Amino acid sequence: MSAATSPVHDMSVAYALEGLEGIERLRFEGHLVQCAECRGDVEDVRDAAELLSVGIELAPPASLRTQVEDLTRLPVAAAAATEDTPGESPAPARRRRWFGGG
Amino acid sequence: MTRNLPTTGSPADLFGRVEYLLTRCAQRDARSLVHLYDLTAGRVLGLVSRVLGPGPEAHEVVVEAYAALWQGEVEIPEGASLPWLLGVAHARAVARQRTRARVPAQRSGDAEVRAFPPDRGWLPGLEEDEREALAEVYLRGHAVGVADQRLGWAPGTAVSTLHRAMLHLAQLHNGTREGTPDGDRHAAGVRAGHPDGQHDQREVLA
């Protein structure tokens, strides 16, 4: 694996922050399949991205809460299917190598 | 600041509550969805509103995000908490923003977004270019190539600046940053650490 311009591993942050699109995004996703380190970095950065929305909160209007309450009154067709099939995705027990704890 | 000590009102406490409520939502507990909303909507709306501009479209995406997890459109991974929820909403907002950007008739919305800049106090410990890169990509939803153009940077600069910004944020967050801020020197150190494409940035942070 080689990158023509920037080191491909450096793109984990851009990818994790939704900064890649089109062919660039597809190419990096191809790299992720074979690079566990980058998969870990992407997970770390996605966790850490929570820090980027601290201090920019907005008070939601009351109508939004009503709409969310209304969601619970709607029949959910797809939910039963997902409940019956417990997650089979591997969830590696590692978090925040960049960001403390872990 | 740490998330490892779950005291009342601390981020760890918030993360724990969100994680619990997400688990309950997956089990179809309606009250938990509303509690989850009450606990997180300000954060979610604040973020989505930066990407799309404040107003009805942002409101729509916020409701869509809670609907997606409630209706099973997205699977809630084990251990998911606030970062996951914010990520779901952010990805939707960015997708919407990019679709809108491709439609010329709606480009006027971009001016509205630009009129809603990050606060001066947003990520105060970072370098100005780090803040700019994060604001362009994360808060305004632009792809890195577009960010480079908008900021008048050489291609690839946004990618490397984002990388440096998150490493810098990690250092500030972990309280391990030494000396005066010097992002370029730090980034150079990181790159020098893996000339063969190895991942040594965590050793820098250790």
Number of helices of chain B: 10
- Span from first to last CA of chain A? 29 Å
Number of strands of chain A: 0
Record field, number of beta strands of chain B: 0
Overall helicity of chain B: 55-70%
H/E topology pattern of chain B: HHHHHHHHHH
Strand share of the residues of chain A?
under 5%
Largest sheet of chain A: none
- What oligomeric state do the depicted chains represent? heterodimer
Supply the helix-strand structural class of chain B: mainly alpha
The greatest interface here is:
A-B, 62 and 78 residues
| Distance linking N and C termini of chain B | 17 Å
Anisotropy-based shape of chain B: globular
Based on CA atoms alone, the radius of gyration of chain A comes out at: 19 Å
The main β sheet of chain B shows up as: none
Mean pLDDT of chain B: 80
Decide which structural class fits the backbone of chain A.
Answer: mainly alpha
Taking all Cα atoms into account, the compactness measure Rg of chain B is 19 Å
Please state roughly what percent of the residues of chain B sit in beta strands, choosing from under 5%, 5-15%, 15-25%, 25-35%, 35-45% or over 45%.
under 5%
Protein model, in words:
The complex is a heterodimer of chains A (102) and B (206). With 102 residues, chain A is mainly α. Chain A contains five helices and no strands. Chain A is elongated. By secondary structure, chain B is an all-alpha fold. Chain B has ten helices and no strands. Chain B has helices spanning 11-26, 30-52, 56-70, 82-102, 108-114, 128-139, 144-151, 157-174, 183-193, 201-205. In chain B, helix 3 (56-70) packs across helix 4 and helix 8 (157-174) packs across helix 9 (183-193).
Q: SSE layout and pairings?
A:
The complex is a heterodimer of chains A (102) and B (206).
Chain A: H1 11-16, H2 22-34, H3 36-48, H4 62-71, H5 77-84
Chain B: H1 11-26, H2 30-52, H3 56-70, H4 82-102, H5 108-114, H6 128-139, H7 144-151, H8 157-174, H9 183-193, H10 201-205
